Amino acid sequence: MAYAAFRSIGAYVPEKILTNEELSKMVDTSDEWITKRTGIKERRIAAKDEKTSDMGVEAAKIALQRSGLDAQDIDLVICGTISPDYFCMPSTATVITGKLGMKNATAFDISAACTGFIYSLSVAKAFIESGMNKNVLIIGAEKLSAITDFTDRGTCILFGDGAGAAVISATNNKDEAIIDIHTGADGSYADLLMTPNGGTGSAHDALDKEAAGCYMQMKGNETFKVAVRTLTKDVKEILAVNNIETSSIKHFVPHQANLRIIKAVGEALNLKDEQVVLTVEKYGNTSGASIPMAINDIYESGKLQAGELMLLDAFGGGLTWGSALVPFSPFK
Ligand code: COA
Predict the structure, then answer these.
(1) Do the Cβ atoms of 181 and 323 come closer than 8 Å?
(2) pLDDT for residue 196
(3) Ligand 1, atom 29: nearest CA belongs to which residue?
(4) Which of 4, 96, 163, 206: disulfide with 125, CB 3.0–4.6 Å?
(5) pLDDT at residue 195, rounded to an integer
């Protein structure tokens, strides 16, 4: 049987930085409030003509180069995004294959909000283990600034833009394989975090985003509580099922939504500070891009070494959630 190994990581962040100070000139908020309630100090904002696919392509190029594979070696491209280039089609994943000149890949998007990367990882693992694919490129890319209402202080302080990508490949060596992935969803919480209109479920004027309700709306306080509860339960389950102690986790890489959520989950799991990967301060919440961007951060700072075990954990609109036990296994 083939197993799936996490081979390489890459990420891209746009140049423009939007600080809390700048936001406090746009809405009634302050650096002190945002820092205390979320841990976020700044976030990146894509250029006007910079698309989600452009950011995904930059992240993918780095992940491909670090894997040593060529774009033509890739059988499948999955892009987890809630801010696709186009409303219905083509998918952002197919746009990315075009920009990378890929000729041999199947491509599709996954819509699972902040859990997009873990959902993509689970699909990559399944396709590889079934023998259907050998090399899968998974991408989390978001231009959330395009669906953020910059007059709503309850949401605009949280979100940012960016992309991350990883190459997942078949291996016969079980020791370097992804150990397990759990995913879940509960649509009864759909109204906690949504872009209420703009789809075929509602009458809308697609050209007027504000009137169409195409911006993200959130019940922040309720989302916070469900997030802590769900993330903690999810992680405890995947560790118990696989008989793994938290002390064996080298890097806990949670979705970077809010420092207080991450701290609450870390404490419930008795994780030490050095095990917990944090990028929320500089990038805010980049939804499906946040986990690969965080993995890239520890990779580029030399903290992520071959063989080390990562525990990924995410939660997002839908609601969706997921966790994964993933050794970092670059090609030798
Ligand atoms: N600046 C200043 N005050 C703000 C504010 C802002 N940016 N946003 C909200 N407030 C105010 C509210 O209006 C409210 O005022 P009131 O008491 O006079 O009514 C007060 O702060 C408390 O609001 P509340 O929503 O209870 O704050 P909170 O402590 O829950 O923090 C969030 C708000 C959004 C930071 C927090 O709920 C959160 O992070 N939730 C999770 C969101 C998330 O992670 N979503 C993505 C999931 S993937």
Answers:
(1) yes
(2) 82
(3) 37
(4) 4
(5) 87
Q: Provide the pLDDT for residue 161.
A: 98
Regions in the chain scoring below 70 on pLDDT:
203-213
Q: From the CA of 179, how far away is ligand 1's center (Å)?
A: 36
Indicate the DSSP class of residue 47.
-
Do 177 and 4 meet the contact criterion of CB atoms below 8 Å apart? yes
Q: Map out the domains of the chain as residue ranges.
A: 1-332
Give distance in angstroms: CA of 157 to centre of ligand 1. Answer: 10
3-state DSSP assignment of residue 135: strand
Angular region, 177: left φ>0, alpha ψ -120 to 50, beta rest: beta
Edge-to-edge strand ranges of the sheet holding 106-110:
3-12, 161-171, 135-143, 76-80, 106-110
Instruction: Express each pLDDT in 33-45 by its tens digit.
Output: 999 999 999 999 9
Instruction: Write the DSSP string, 205-253.
Output: -TT-HHHHT-S-EE-HHHHHHHHHHHHHHHHHHHHHHTT--GGG-SEEE
- Give 274: exposed, middle or buried? Use CB within 10 Å, 0-12, 13-18, 19+: exposed
Do 203 and 140 meet the contact criterion of CB atoms below 8 Å apart? no
Query: Which CATH fold would you assign to the domain 1-332?
Result: Peroxisomal Thiolase; Chain A, domain 1 (3.40.47)
Is the entire prediction scored with pTM above 0.85? yes
Q: Does the beta carbon of 29 lie inside 6 Å of ligand 1?
A: yes
CA distance 97 to 109: 12
Q: Checking DSSP bridges between strand 309-316 and strand 251-254, what pairing results, if any?
A: parallel
Atom of ligand 1 lying closest to residue 38 CA: 35
Cα of 67 vs its chain's centroid, Å: 20
